[in-house]
From TrEMBL:
<keyword id="KW-0326">Glycosidase</keyword>
<keyword id="KW-0227">DNA damage</keyword>
<keyword id="KW-0408">Iron</keyword>
<comment type="function">
    <text>Adenine glycosylase active on G-A mispairs.</text>
</comment>
<dbReference type="InterPro" id="IPR029119">
    <property type="entry name" value="MutY_C"/>
</dbReference>
<comment type="function">
    <text>Base excision repair (BER) glycosylase that initiates repair of A:oxoG to C:G by removing the inappropriately paired adenine base from the DNA backbone, generating an abasic site product. 8-oxoguanine (oxoG) is a genotoxic DNA lesion resulting from oxidation of guanine; this residue is misread by replicative DNA polymerases, that insert adenine instead of cytosine opposite the oxidized damaged base. Shows a powerful dicrimination of A versus C, since it does not cleave cytosine in oxoG:C pairs.</text>
</comment>
<dbReference type="GO" id="GO:0051539">
    <property type="term" value="F:4 iron, 4 sulfur cluster binding"/>
</dbReference>
<comment type="similarity">
    <text>Belongs to the Nth/MutY family.</text>
</comment>
<dbReference type="GO" id="GO:0034039">
    <property type="term" value="F:8-oxo-7,8-dihydroguanine DNA N-glycosylase activity"/>
</dbReference>
<dbReference type="Pfam" id="PF00633">
    <property type="entry name" value="HHH"/>
</dbReference>
<dbReference type="GO" id="GO:0000701">
    <property type="term" value="F:purine-specific mismatch base pair DNA N-glycosylase activity"/>
</dbReference>
<dbReference type="InterPro" id="IPR000445">
    <property type="entry name" value="HhH_motif"/>
</dbReference>
<dbReference type="InterPro" id="IPR023170">
    <property type="entry name" value="HhH_base_excis_C"/>
</dbReference>
<keyword id="KW-0238">DNA-binding</keyword>
<dbReference type="GO" id="GO:0006284">
    <property type="term" value="P:base-excision repair"/>
</dbReference>
<dbReference type="GO" id="GO:0006298">
    <property type="term" value="P:mismatch repair"/>
</dbReference>
<dbReference type="Pfam" id="PF14815">
    <property type="entry name" value="NUDIX_4"/>
</dbReference>
Length: 359
DNA sequence: AAGACGTGGGC
DNA sequence: TGCCCAAGTCT
């Protein structure tokens, strides 16, 4: 039994693309088909809502309008333009990949799946999105929307959280994608998922392809897609301190270039390990050894919780003073509140700063 | 394959 | 409040 038996591919393409031509949103990355802008938008849109991305995209393109300008930009500036968007490795990978395109491809984004998919941060979805939208190549671009929409239309009950399932959807898309307009076909599927075929309470009565939809016919649209639940985030106790010197400058530290919040700046902190001695003593000992400074840590004045996708920071926030000299380095600096604006802080540490200024 | 990797919004 | 999500990729 083939899922596509009795499925009218030509009529489906027509109904879907006609709807998209009529109803698509005006979005800044739809102004033209510049492969670079398509690329930037696709990276920003990974796991991120359109409304969140719009201002970031406009600002990013203002600052880095071309491959060349981004390739030549300093990482500090590039990270700053991403501040608050999350998944920061996206922009570090984009930066590295754009440099590669500048050097290896003369500033032209390559137009084959083989070459595009080798670029850092460009996986199967983004490869298909760039190829179809910027170059009109009929390549699948299977994201969460496409899996949700297709699982309903074809009544597919495989778990879309499994990596293997995405491959199966790619195989199906290869069979039904419009060869004449793969760009609109792929975008229409995603637009439909964003506007009509939404996760909860899909607006089937407004759907341009409901006559093609098996889940709608069977009344099971709310049961699809099947998606296994993610593990709950793990709570972690942490102590952080806003340290001032005699000039009221604040001590900040640059995180390592790998892992969580890589290369972002933060206030000195560490994970609380045992109950053997107080959080304050642990923090003090850690900072003295890690940064080779002497401090007088005061009292905790607030607590801040920050929830990531996979963990929760429960941060006890202290204030304190630095005794004597600080030897600054590439990863340790003393800055005024004004100067701090140029550094990229994760939202959790932006909140620590606010709590300090408001205390 | 499954976990790491951010954040803000909706209900 | 708490949970799920939103145009995924890397290891």
């Amino acid at each position: 039994m083939n899922k596509l038996d009795h499925f009218n591919i030509d009529q489906f393409q027509l109904d879907l693309i006609s709807w998209f031509e009529q109803e698509q949103r005006d979005l800044p990355w739809r102004m033209d088909k510049d492969p670079y802008k398509v690329w930037v938008s696709e990276i920003m849109l990974q796991q991120t809502r359109v409304d969140t991305v719009i201002p970031y995209f406009n600002n990013f393109i203002d600052q880095f309008p071309t491959i060349e300008t981004l390739a030549e930009a300093e990482e500090e500036k590039v990270l700053k333009a991403w501040e608050g968007l999350g998944y920061y490795s996206r922009v570090r990978n984009l930066h590295a990949a754009v440099k590669e395109v500048a050097e290896k491809y003369g500033g032209q984004v390559p137009n084959t799946a083989k070459e595009i998919s080798k670029l850092k941060g460009v996986g199967p979805y983004t490869t298909g999105a760039i190829l179809s939208i910027a170059y009109g190549v009929p390549e699948p671009a299977v994201d969460g929307n496409v899996m949700r929409v297709l699982s309903r239309i074809l009544s597919i009950w495989d778990d879309i959280a499994k990596p293997k399932t995405r491959q199966q959807f790619e195989d199906i898309i290869r069979e039904i994608i419009s060869k004449e307009n793969p760009s609109f076909f792929n975008q229409a599927l995603m637009e439909l998922g964003a506007l009509i075929c939404i996760p909860a309470n899909p607006a089937c009565l407004l759907c341009p392809v409901r006559n093609h939809c098996r889940a709608f016919a069977e009344g099971v649209q709310k049961e699809l897609p099947v998606k296994s639940k993610k593990k709950a985030p793990v709570p972690l106790s942490m102590a952080a301190v806003v340290l001032q010197n005699e000039d009221k400058k604040l001590l900040i530290h640059k995180r390592p270039d790998k892992g969580l919040l890589a290369n972002l700046w933060e206030f000195p902190n560490h994970e609380s390990i045992s109950e053997l001695y107080t959080q304050k003593e642990q923090l003090s000992d850690f900072i003295n050894q890690e940064f080779k400074i002497q401090t007088k840590i005061g009292e905790a004045y607030t607590t801040i919780q920050h929830i990531f996708s996979h963990l929760i920071w429960n941060i006890t926030v202290f204030e304190g003073e630095i005794i004597g000299e600080v030897i600054e380095s590439d990863s340790l600096k003393l800055v005024t509140v004004e100067e701090l604006r140029q550094f990229t802080l994760p939202v959790s540490h932006q909140n620590i700063l606010k709590s300090f200024l408001d205390r």
